[in-house]
Specification:
Mean pLDDT: 97
Number of strands: 21
Structural class: alpha+beta
Low-confidence stretches: none
Oligomer: single chain
Radius of gyration: 25 Å
Strand order of the largest sheet: 6-5-4-1-7-8
Helix content: 25-40%
Length: about 450
């Protein structure tokens, strides 16, 4: 299985500390364990920022960075080894493992943090933390600061400044390294196989969850611990619900099914959408809408390259979709005027994509100084135009109603344009119909 190497985590910490003010400290908690119900926990998933800097997979941990500290700049508070608890819950790294396996310069039991951390904070001019994202941890941090303040009359020096860590850290996360792209390619490869499997399994009379099961099987078989987000399997009129997640409707003859799903490898997401006919053959109307969305996506790819700005890809999809809807008679009027009035939003109400990385909707500003961000090598994003014609839309002919199509791929900006990570899934009408026909022949 492909993973981010240990040396990369060390480089990230050094790069962050190089941007921090002298005589400062950064403090970041691990994700809390989430309770599903009563005493049953959700599958644990580390906080993305914490993971990005440490690779440490356990809960109940706090990461501390102190540039210039003589006894070691990277400190990790984590759970102690405990034979009885490990019998129930699995092995722990402990303090030795935190140093040996995860590169910490120093490690302490998490139960000792109240005694040790105030002493580390004391005398530092600035504290960087993920302010506002974890209110409970914010309260702990203020408790530690107040311990220092209470000793000010004895000469203790509390910090003068408190700064959100997000800006520095999230700008770093926006640029993907070669190692990160390698992991994202693997997530994309497994997710592509899952979509192919779902296409091959598609049959009239199955349920949406039947196809979701095919996705989950392929994700797990490929080594992914979990989907990157709740899978959308939306058949018929459900394909017009952007974040549909019921996934329990019947697959009917003549329906399209829209699947938006991707797995996560080493905390890096993939995000793919494909739309295909349940019975293996697009109707004339479905094909027309599908090919319009596909043309919009191709136009967007052409606008993703260094020195082009973030919004150019979206603008390209808007122009293609608006012109196409006029040609099909779903919109009436001048294309430029329809774009200016946003008439297309009745059918295409979302943007053409988002940043992608450790979070499926990844961190990073889309505008800088009020202007759209200029794309640079290593930025990763999705490209996902769509057209949705609600089943109860009385403004269009009946033959168009209930058709929802989205096509989504993941790309990384390269020196010459972009690399499509998710090209392993058929995308043209001919390719999809041929794949489904072959699957039916083999099953017969």
């Amino acid at each position: 299985m492909i993973h981010i190497p240990k040396a990369e985590y060390s480089r990230r910490r050094k790069a962050l500390m190089a941007q921090m003010e002298p005589n400062s400290i950064a403090i970041l908690p691990a994700a809390a364990v989430a309770i599903r119900n009563r005493d049953v926990e959700h599958v644990y998933r580390q906080d993305s920022d914490f993971q990005y800097l440490s690779g440490f997979p356990e809960p109940q941990a706090v990461l501390v960075l102190m540039p210039g500290r003589v006894h070691g700049e990277y400190i990790l508070f984590c759970r102690e080894r405990n034979a009885e608890r490990e019998l129930w819950d699995g092995l722990r790294a402990g303090q030795e493992g935190a140093i040996r396996d995860f590169g910490a310069d120093d490690a302490f039991p998490i139960t000792d943090i109240d005694d040790i951390l105030p002493g580390l904070i004391e005398g530092r001019d600035r504290v960087y933390s993920a302010m506002g994202s974890n209110p409970e941890f914010d309260r702990h941090l203020m408790d530690w600061i107040n311990v220092i303040r209470s000793k000010a009359s004895l000469g203790a020096q509390p910090p003068n400044e408190y700064v959100a860590l997000d800006h520095l850290l999230h700008d770093m996360r926006l640029y993907k390294s070669a190692a990160e792209v390698k992991v994202m390619r693997e997530a994309a490869r497994i997710s592509a196989q899952a979509h192919v499997r779902a296409m091959q399994a598609s049959r009239v009379g199955l349920h949406e969850f039947s196809l979701e099961a095919e996705l989950d099987y392929e994700f797990r078989k490929g080594g992914a611990k979990m989907p990157a987000y709740g899978s959308i399997v939306a058949a018929g009129r459900n394909s017009c619900i952007l974040h549909y997640q019921q996934n329990d409707a019947l697959l009917k003859d003549g329906d399209l099914v829209l699947i938006d799903a991707g797995c996560e490898i080493d905390c890096y997401a993939s995000d793919i959408t494909r739309t295909w006919p349940v019975n293996g053959k697009y109707s004339a109307e479905q094909k027309a809408i599908y090919e319009l969305v596909l043309a919009a996506q191709e136009a967007a790819f052409a606008e993703i390259a260094p020195n082009k700005h973030w919004n150019q890809a979206h603008e390209a999809t808007v122009r293609v979709i608006t012109a196409g809807l006029v040609e099909l008679g779903l919109l009436q009027g001048d294309v430029d005027e329809l774009i200016a009035s946003e008439a297309y939003k009745a059918f295409y109400m979302h943007r053409a994509g988002h940043w992608l990385g450790m979070d499926v909707h990844d961190v990073g500003e889309y505008k800088v100084g009020g202007e759209w961000r200029v794309l640079e090598v290593g930025m990763a994003l999705t490209v996902e135009p769509g057209i949705y014609i609600a089943a109860d839309n009385q403004n269009v002919a009946k033959k168009w109603r209930g058709i929802g199509v989205r096509i989504e791929d993941d790309v990384v900006v390269t020196k010459t344009g972009c690399e499509i990570l998710t090209k392993g899934v058929p995308k043209t009408v001919a390719e999809i119909e041929a794949l489904m026909a072959q699957a039916r022949t083999q099953a017969a």
